[in-house]
Amino acid sequence: MGTLASGISPLPVCSSLSLGNSIRDRSNRDASGERVSNCCRFGSTGSVKENCHSSSYSPSPPSSSACRVSPSAEIKSSVSSCRSSSASGKFFSGSGFRVGSLSGSGILSLTSIRKRSGRKFAVHYMAPGPEAGFKNGRLQSAASEAELTKIQQVEAHFQQETQAVSAGQYVVEDAEHTLVEPSDEFRKTALIPSLEKYDALYKESVKDPDAFWSRIASEFYWKEKWEVNDGKIHTENFDIREGPIKVEWFKGGKTNICYNALDRHVEAGRASDIAMYWEGNEPGYDSTVTFGQLLELVCQVANYLRSLGVKKGDAVVIYMPMLVELPVAMLACARIGAIHSVVFAGFSADSLAQRILDCKPKVVLTANGVMRGAKLINLKSIVDDALAQTKKQGHAVETCLVYGNEVATKKEETAWVGERDVWWQDVIPSQASRSEVEWVDAEDPLFLLYTSGSTGKPKGVLHTTGGYMVYTATTFKHAFDYRPGDIYWCTADCGWITGHSYLTYGPLLNGATVVNFEGVPTYPDAGRCWEIVDKYKVTIFYTAPTAIRSLMRAGDEPVKKHSRKSLRMLGSVGEPINPAAWKWYYEVVGDSRCPISDTWWQTETGGFMITPVPGAFALKPGSATFPFFGVQPAIVDENGKELEGECSGYLCIKASWPSAFRTLFGDHSRYETTYFAPFKGFYFSGDGCHRDKDGYYWLTGRVDDVINVSGHRIGSAEVESALVLHPQCAEAAVVGYDHDVKGQGIYAFVTLVEGVDYSEELRKALVAKVRSQIGPFAAPDVIHWAPGLPKTRSGKIMRRILRKIAANQIDELGDVSTLADPGVVEQLIELKGK
Ligand code: 6R9
């Protein structure tokens, strides 16, 4: 591991085992009564065929549960190559089936037959030998008798199986081999309706990124056009051996992201169109804001900030709840060229103080309080504490602008520092409702957003203006297949990158109507999300797997009580979504009608990197599918060697994309060493990744969450994925702990489905589930019952805390104030050893 920077852990043994085979097999029987293996594969003889998806990366022999090749003399089962580099991708249909064809080396073979109607699933076959009967994906008249008979046999068998599936006797279980096609109806109107179109655009985007992104950027308003040097509109160095790391896009171009997100639409006659529906924590509290109104509000705040002397290049810290005023404050900063640094209003006073000290703003924007579910949070007292700390350490914030959120806290009950604090309502409404735009360079900073790293000091990720604007807008449009009239709801908070790129900038740049929800998905009950979907006729719903799992836990009834018929598209972000949750989201929430865009990206990347383009190709439950336009992923081994084809390794990116972060604020060398030093010539994401035979990408989690048990590297996500396959397990979080014999042991925190009691029998069943899914070496040593897991408000499990509990270091838990519910920690401590 000599080449790895410290803090990066080795990869799991075989990531193909992690998420690929984890949808629950309800009965494990096929129609003929045979035991079905871990996925749905049948040969023409009716016997079960197994499939091998061994990893070329894996340094160890496959575990006992790994699939082995079992070639059949008759028909070999194989994955369909709907997007391998050698696949023609051509299909033709006949009698309700589709037949796929590979034309790689000139050897044409039947690879995939799928029933298009009814329940969606894939069965894969490879007919023997070079099939002379197939040419360019078409069955030629020269097909041999034997070949046709074989196809008929397969079709007949397939029909039987389809009936069995429809009758609910079993569900197709192997996510890596399950293809979920967009419906014809979806495809008909999709922006990118075919693989061919996606492929053509993708090829162009990597071959000539300058031409590709110039064309898209021209759709925005630029006060002055960017510079073009030798046909290039970007410069980059991703190789630390060649000098300092540097990325620039559209340099010399003058624009303003606020102008493009608001004024442009108002000037196009859309002033009275709805830009934002705000839904309060308490049902019944809501408001509607048009583009015209939003622009006026933004201008008023911009004017006030200017009156305080805030100008281009100054930092402004925003610590606000999800009121309309939060995106307004961000856009106001952007309008005057100030750099916003939003701190999630769930961070403690210490964390806020640390972030303030880093960028030294003159002004901090906040609200006096907020209700989160049934809980009151007194934000102003946290800010007071933070500002007292920063003053002591040499930075006195001049103005604290406080939005009086009377629903939560009365003004008269708010502590006040006379010479510093100002009520929003006292100064903003009286400002002029027009405000001049500050034209900035494409490479001028837009915002700072702190994210945690491997050390205690958070990293100030810095994004600039032009590339971020073009990229977030374009990814939003294509990953969600956005078209005018869509009502888009993203449940993220603006305190995280998702709230920046896909609640504020991306959608507004497209002129979309967004829903901004102040509350939590389960308050006052588990039906709240679907009530909101129906209330605003939401067409695109974007949330995190943790929310999906917590809603799944409450069962189908709260979902089914609401119509949800407006929904057209679903999205997922933040962590790998396990296939069982994917499936529930798809079938129950989306009524098997809405594609799911599982979007992989990071604070650092600014926008989606690996994501479905939903009209273009089939999805696989749990896979983020393929790279977005202009993104060149590379999976590398521990020596930084790029791996080809099916493989597992470290996920890197080979070349810059417009919304790449440009530096870590005030620490360019940390930027270089963290992201560009581990694998020379690449941006290193910190994530592990598997690419399957079809070219689909499967994110397997942070490589720092890997556990090494007796020399076996096991991803915590793999064990979690196995545990949640047990029907009574709602959620699981797995960490490593020191083990005398094995080096590290596996410690699993398990949340059960509501109404299920803890029992020794269940504990054993859970361990058995992991043994059977991954192998005995991965069996958890400890199952710790967890009524709840410690999560940040953005839904990330804080494994740091779980590791401390597992290691019995209860007095070293550190700051738990940033948790959505700090109370769960006490519960967990109480249940230790029970
Ligand atoms: C957008 C966001 C980034 C990390 C990233 C990865 C994980 C995000 C994911 C995903 C699997 C997805 N992650 N999306 N893993 N599938 N669709 O969450 O940014 O807070 O910076 O986190 O989140 O591990 O490296 P950020």
Provide an overview of this structure.
With about 850 residues, this protein is an alpha/beta fold. It is built from 21 helices and 37 strands. An 8-stranded mixed beta sheet has the order 18-17-14-12-13-20-21-30, sandwiched between helices. A hairpin with a 7-residue loop joins strand 3 and strand 4. Helix 3 (about 195-205) packs across helix 4 (about 210-215), helix 6 (about 290-305) packs across helix 7 (about 325-335) and helix 8 (about 350-360) packs across helix 9 (about 380-390). The longest helix has 22 residues, at about 145-165. Bound molecules: ligand 6R9. Ligand 6R9 binds next to helix 12, strand 31 and strand 32. Belongs to the ATP-dependent AMP-binding enzyme family. It comes from Riccia sorocarpa. GO terms for molecular function: acetate-CoA ligase activity; ATP binding.
- The low-pLDDT segments are 1-7, 12-143, 161-173
Mean pLDDT: 80
Helix % is: 25-40%
Q: How far do the termini sit from each other?
A: 38 Å
Biggest sheet features: 8 strands, mixed
Bound molecules: ligand 6R9
Beta-strand residue percentage: 15-25%
| Helix and strand composition category | alpha/beta
Q: Find the count of extended strands (DSSP E, 2+ residues).
A: 37
* Shape descriptor: globular
The number of distinct helices, counting runs of at least 4 residues, comes to 21
What is the topology, as strand order, of the major beta sheet? 18-17-14-12-13-20-21-30
Radius of gyration over C-alpha positions, nearest whole angstrom = 27 Å
EC number: 6.2.1.1
Enzyme class: ligase
Pfam families: ACAS_N (PF16177), AMP-binding (PF00501), AMP-binding_C (PF13193)
Region (Disordered): 47-69
